[in-house]
Amino acid sequence: MLALYDMDRTLTSRPSWFPWLLFWARHEAPWRLLFLPLLPLLLLAYPLRLLDRGGLKQAMHRLLMGPRVSQARVAARAAGFAASFGAASERVGALAQLAADRADGLTPVLVTASPHFYVDALARRWGFAHVIATRNHCEGQMLTPRLDGPNCHGEAKVTRLKAAFGPDLAQVARAYSDHA
After folding, report:
1. What is residue 170's DSSP assignment?
2. How close are the terminal C-alpha atoms of the chain, in Å?
3. Is the pLDDT of residue 96 over 70?
4. Which of 120, 123, 104, 105 is CA-nearest to residue 5?
5. Mean pLDDT across 140-158
6. Helix-strand-coil percent breakdown of the chain, rounded to 5?
7. Which phi and psi (to 5°) does residue 37 adopt?
8. 149 to each of 34, 115, 133, how far by Cα in Å?
9. In the predicted model, is pLDDT for residue 9 greater than 80?
10. pLDDT mean over 26-46
11. Is the pLDDT of residue 180 over 70?
């Protein structure tokens, strides 16, 4: 039986995407912080329906991480992000529930719209063996801003869960999220 956990504002007290982008830029490409004044324009494009959530995620990635970065560099930096962001924003009650679900014999699954390239490090911190997250396209060993499939949000989460665990999701015993 499965226990599903959303990440942002469920396991953590705040969203992770913008903190990740700032963490990356500060440590890997500080000059990209010069692009921060452009961010409000991108954020405005979402309510104006010029960009959907996936398009916004790709544009922000390109702006603050660049068009191609080494997966090895990202993985190394994600470990540091998991340590700092995870420690600062994880919810003690959510981690206690995670431990209780494991004690009850449930298999925890982390299901999030956040990008896999840093979520995987957070999942290791919290002991998740199964992660469903937004995937980015890679060209060889280089990570790109382009999403590899749909942004894992809303109905896309359900679709990905069904693909991983079966069409009826009868194995789901519990689910935790800050959204319906």
Report:
1. T
2. 21
3. yes
4. 123
5. 96
6. 50, 20, 25
7. -60, -15
8. 30, 12, 11
9. yes
10. 97
11. no
Per-residue pLDDT, 168: 87
Our separate counts of H helices and E strands in the chain read: 7, 7
Kindly provide the b/e burial profile for residues 127-157, where b requires at least 16 CB atoms within 10 angstroms of the residue's own CB: ebeebbbbbbeeeeeebbbebeebbbbeebb
- Classify burial at 17, counting beta carbons within 10 Å of its beta carbon; exposed 0-12, middle 13-18, buried 19 or more: middle
Q: What is the pLDDT of residue 179?
A: 77
Task: Give the integer Cα–Cα distance in Å for 107 and 130.
Answer: 8
Contact 129, 100 (CB under 8 A): no
| Residue owning tokens 């010069």 | 34
**Residue the block writes with tokens 């010029």:** 50
Phi and psi angles of residue 177, each rounded to the nearest 5 degrees, phi first: -160, 160
Beta strands in 6-90 (DSSP E): 69-70
21-37 mean pLDDT: 98
